[in-house]
Amino acid sequence: MEMKEKIRFYIRYLGRDSFTGFYELRFLPDGESVGYNHHDWEDIWYLENVKNALNEIISQKQ
Prior knowledge:
Blueprint: H1 3-10, E1 14-16, E2 23-25, H2 41-61
Organism: Fusobacterium necrophorum
Protein name: Phage protein
């Protein structure tokens, strides 16, 4: 999968916290971490990197 395709596919798992405005991983609607068991570690690692990059951009804007 290309990077753009991966981002489009996995972006649904990134939710924005309404209080802080930062992104967090949400595999289930309420943000429980149960979904971590159902994904490969490489996918979770990739999502964590994308999430950290987006949060860094947000923190630089503030």
